[in-house]
Design brief:
This protein is mainly β. The chain has 1 helix and 19 strands. The protein has an 18-stranded antiparallel barrel.
């Protein structure tokens, strides 16, 4: 009898473990459902060497320097003062990371600052600053919860990873907070729920106040997955967003409901996808709308090599012109070692967005945006990296004179050394 009971417990643990593996795929896909958090990053390189966390507290100080050539420091449109619109920028960036790894608890916090020192246009000098904090806790094999927050102060709007924002040399502050619970009900069922708060505030001189609004979004997301077999799970996702945009008469609500599939193609390949509808509630000034919503993502993970491609279509609030836009987004990225040597690596990412206005706001314009970067790096030692990079942003409002692009090329050296704390 004891052997039988032991066998049942082992089988239950295997089922829960299999469900957790599939749930990891689902949890990653929910990032697409939410449209991602508010992200910001000035440096083009991949920053400090990834620290190897051990049990207990680890403090990781980091310092780096970079030299960059920027061919559009003012974010002028094409064929506008191009001879006086470039410069070389020296960047100095201190960082500090504090991490705790316990048996059931993970805690992380950090600060990053980047001082931009323009060689010829010193009036543009300023700090780009970011902070973060995160807690993850596994209460039991079935229950996990998390909470994290990010804040950033950035010098230009192309550094904000959200749709519907025109690229301008205008400073902005962003905040992003999220908390949630994941529960594996059994070997075949799992649910999660989370809440998210995003806020964007722009420095708003008179010449940009009409198309850099700012505001905040509250969002809740829920997901259910049912495991069909060791590789596949089916389920449903639901999200609710309430957006308040500066200058809009009143907040508006968005609902998205999708049927979902998560599939482990092989030990290194995974696929997630969903399809359904997104509904915008009507208000006294905005007519309600319904449209299709879908997403699909394919990922490959292998030691030292990663690849991902994804597509997302939905309605999202516009922190730029206000109102709501239909957002279509394609993202592709990969990282791979070079020369059969893990110390040399190539990292590429490209993100394309097409934002089309849905609401009747006179200033609102369509925007097509592209962000891409390429990094060639060498990990000279476990505590230092040397990287060359190229980054480009391109945006068009689909009107005469509404096209701008920005190219940056340079190199950086970053050094860091984790320190164990008692």
């Amino acid at each position: 009898m004891r052997n039988a009971e032991c066998g049942l417990r082992i089988e239950d643990e295997r089922q829960v473990s299999a469900m957790k593996r599939i749930w990891l795929i689902a949890a990653a896909s929910l990032t697409l459902l939410s449209g991602g958090g508010v992200g910001a990053q000035e440096r083009m390189g991949s920053a400090a060497p990834a620290p190897a966390y051990r049990p207990g507290w680890t403090l990781t100080p980091t310092f780096g320097v970079a030299e960059t050539y920027d061919d559009n420091i003012s974010f002028f449109g094409r064929n506008t003062a191009e001879e006086q619109n470039d410069d070389y920028i020296a960047t100095y960036f201190p960082e500090v990371d504090l991490h705790y790894a316990g048996h059931h608890t993970q805690f992380g916090s950090g600060y990053t600052g980047s001082f931009l020192d323009y060689r010829s246009h010193s009036g543009l000098n300023r700090w780009d600053q970011r902070g973060r904090i995160e807690v993850r806790r596994e209460e039991t094999a079935q229950i996990k919860w998390f909470a994290h927050g990010n804040a950033a102060a950035v010098p230009t709007t192309d550094l904000i990873d959200l749709g519907g924002i025109p690229f301008r040399r205008t400073g902005a502050t962003t905040m992003d907070g999220r908390a949630g619970v994941e529960y594996v009900i059994s070997g075949t069922n799992a649910v999660s729920t989370s809440v998210n708060y995003n806020r964007v505030d722009f420095e708003r001189p008179d010449d940009v106040s009409a198309f850099l609004r700012g505001g905040h979004i509250f969002e809740s997301m829920s997901a259910w997955r049912h495991k069909i077999d060791e590789r596949m799970a089916l389920g449903a996702d639901y999200s609710f967003r309430r957006a308040s945009i500066v200058g809009d008469a009143e907040p508006f609500n968005l609902h998205s409901t999708q049927a979902a599939i998560d599939y482990e193609i092989s030990p290194i390949w995974s696929l997630s996808g969903a399809g359904g509808i997104v509904y915008m509630e009507s208000t006294p000034t905005i007519e309600g709308r319904t449209g299709p919503a879908w997403r699909i993502a394919v990922e490959r993970h292998r030691v030292g090599r990663t690849f991902h491609v994804s597509y997302l279509r939905s309605f999202i609030p516009s922190f730029g012109f206000g109102g709501t836009v239909k957002n279509e987004q394609v993202s592709v990225g990969y990282r791979t070692p070079l020369f059969n040597n893990r110390r040399f690596y190539l990292d590429n990412v490209a993100v394309f967005r097409d934002d089309q206005p849905l609401t009747d706001i006179s200033e609102q314009l369509p925007l097509r945006s592209l962000r891409t970067y390429t990094i060639f790096g060498w990990e000279a030692q476990p505590w230092v990296r040397i990287e060359a990079f190229y980054a480009r942003v391109d945006q068009s409002s689909l009107r005469a004179g509404g096209r701008l692009d920005r190219n940056r090329i340079g190199f950086q050296i970053v050094t860091s050394k984790p320190v164990r704390m008692p």
